[in-house]
Amino acid sequence: MHPYIRITRPVNSVMSGFAVFIAGIIAGGYPFTYKVILASIVSIVACSGGMVINDYFDYDIDKINRKDRVLPMGEMNLKAAFFYAVFLFVFACFIAYFVNFKAFFICITASILMFLYAYKLKRMCFVGNILVGFLTSLTFLYGGAAVNKMEAVGMLFICSFLANISREIMKDIDDIKGDKEMGSSTLPIIYGEKKSLLISQIFLLSGMITTFLPYVYNIFGVQYLFMISVLNIFVFWTLYISKKNVSRAEKSLKIEMYGVLFVFFVSKIIDQIA
Question: What are the pLDDT digits (tens) for 30-53?
């Protein structure tokens, strides 16, 4: 794969666009408008920019933790990576302008936050975890913004926000060796792996609880309750294995988070058909 594609983590970037697309349908229903497509493209391009700028500022850490990435392997120089990230951010905002003002404003704000996160905030204890949890979950609100119905995906945003904070803390635990050598002030470094894992588990448990709110508030029916209950069995298993293998739990949680999105989507389609 070409370095200019691989550095953007194409799978992650495309999945962010897919999340926006599904959120747009959940918020606005089917058939969807062309603005949902545009918003999805914005998310893919902006997320790609975030990945590149993150690798730019993480170059020294990645030489320890992620030696197989594009920059540590010398497949792209740092100056090229920086300007490539800026180009992707600007291009994403340009596309967002044609969605609506709300989408344009969110794109500019998110691009600035992604830059600040990679530059400084990710190494600040817990601040980075909260910010990346917010930015990742923002894809769902962005899908709602494309159809001017952000409130319709508010609960999905909350579920995702809590689960993403949990996952980011798990990633910090997994990366503790390289972070220590770089002098980062992550949660596991300051408070230890055991306490950090407990905090991560509390956020994940909170996220599990919030997934039942759409049923409690009669947004979705019994079919949603059944599907989300089955999915939460797997999330509970992830909660359990995090004590023994945090790296495996983090990867499992990522899949389960997309599972929640799928359950929301199917429930919306069922309600619309009914």
Answer: 767 789 999 999 999 999 999 999
Residue 219 tokens read as 């947004």
pLDDT tens sequence across 133-153? 999 999 999 999 999 998 889
R_g of the chain computed on alpha carbons: 19
Domains of the chain: 3-273 (1.10.357.140)
Distance from C-alpha of 270 to C-alpha of 130, rounded to nearest angstrom:
33
Q: Count Cβ atoms below 10 Å from residue 10 Cβ, excluding itself.
A: 15
Cα–Cα distance, 232 to 248 (Å, whole number): 17
For 42, the token pair is: 């914005």
- pLDDT interval class at 274 (50, 70, 90): low
Query: Other C-beta atoms within 10 Å of 1: how many?
Result: 8
Best CA proximity match to 201, nearest among 132, 249, 154, 158: 249
- Chain-centroid distance of CA 174 in Å reads 18
Sign of CA dihedral 78, 138, 163, 266: negative
Helices marked H in 97-221 = 101-119, 127-146, 154-174, 176-181, 187-191, 193-210, 213-216
Residue given tokens 């194409």 in the structure block: 10
- Contact indicator for 224, 263 with CB cutoff of 8 Å: yes
Among 271, 242, 272, CA closest to 256: 242
End-to-end Cα separation, the chain, in angstroms: 45
